[in-house]
């Protein structure tokens, strides 16, 4: 009888610890002009194969970009679901950890009408870093300006891309800020 009770108590402690490890303060905020994701939840974000628990800026997960999966998680939404007005500016912020000085990365902002088709607008910004930033988390920001009169049925797509065949780039705590005309 005491042994059964001991196992029940151990099981109860395990369940309690498991529940506590799944923190309630997960940072996922998405409204029409702002989206933040610390990769503990993927609401509105796609490209799950890059999700990794090897390193993280916050929480337990990040997006790992390497030779096998060069793209980070991606944000994709129709313009009409982001704002009833025309979007003017897209700001992308992320924390990245670059593991090799030869690794190169870019931030990408696209407007497309059909997923997988050639984007109508394709904007990029190089992820700049210094040699002393290797193996450290650094915040990177890209600012992209959009033309007026975009079709509201088109989609905004944004992601990071490891363009080099060597080195790994981890990304975490993605944030998109949008401005209207």
Can you tell me the CATH architecture? Sandwich
CATH superfamily: Galactose-binding domain-like
End-to-end separation: 71 Å
Structural class by helix and strand composition: mainly beta
Question: How many E-type strands?
Answer: 12
Q: Which bin fits the share of residues in helices?
A: 10-25%
Compute the number of structural domains.
1
Q: Could you say which overall geometry the principal axes of the C-alpha atoms support?
A: elongated
**Largest sheet at a glance?**
7 strands, antiparallel
Helical run tally: 2
CATH class placement: Mainly Beta
**CATH fold naming:** Jelly Rolls
Radius of gyration: 20 Å
Series of H and E elements:
HEEEEEEHEEEEEE
Low-confidence stretches: 4-32
Instruction: Report the average pLDDT across residues.
Output: 80
Strand content: 35-45%
Descriptive report:
By secondary structure, the chain is mainly β. It has a single domain (26-180), classed as Galactose-binding domain-like (Jelly Rolls, Sandwich). Helix content is 13%, strand content 42%. The chain is built from 2 helices and 12 strands. It has helices at residues 2-21, 79-82; strands at residues 28-31, 34-37, 45-46, 51-52, 62-65, 74-78, 87-98, 105-112, 121-126, 137-145, 155-162, 169-180. Strands 1, 2, 4, 5, 7, 10 and 12 form a 7-stranded antiparallel beta sheet that branches. A 5-stranded antiparallel beta sheet has the order 3-6-11-8-9. Strand 1 (28-31) and strand 2 form a beta hairpin. The protein is elongated, with a radius of gyration of 20 Å. The model is unreliable at 4-32 (pLDDT under 50).
């Amino acid at each position: 009888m005491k042994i059964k009770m001991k196992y029940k108590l151990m099981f109860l402690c395990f369940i309690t610890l498991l529940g506590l490890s799944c923190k309630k303060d997960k940072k996922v905020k998405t409204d029409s002009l702002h989206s933040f994701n610390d990769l503990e939840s993927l609401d509105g974000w796609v490209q799950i194969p890059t999700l990794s628990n090897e390193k993280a800026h916050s929480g337990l997960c990040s997006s790992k970009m390497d030779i096998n999966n060069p793209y980070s998680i991606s944000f994709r939404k129709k313009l009409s679901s982001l704002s009833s007005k025309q979007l003017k500016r897209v700001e992308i912020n992320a924390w990245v950890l670059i593991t090799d000085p030869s690794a190169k990365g870019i931030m990408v902002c696209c407007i497309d009408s059909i997923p997988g088709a050639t984007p109508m607008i394709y904007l990029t910004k190089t992820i700049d870093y210094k040699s002393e930033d290797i193996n450290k988390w650094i915040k990177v920001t890209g600012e992209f300006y959009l033309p007026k009169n975009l079709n509201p049925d088109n989609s905004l797509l944004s992601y990071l891309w490891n363009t080099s065949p060597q080195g790994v780039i981890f990304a975490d705590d993605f944030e998109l800020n949008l401005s209207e005309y």
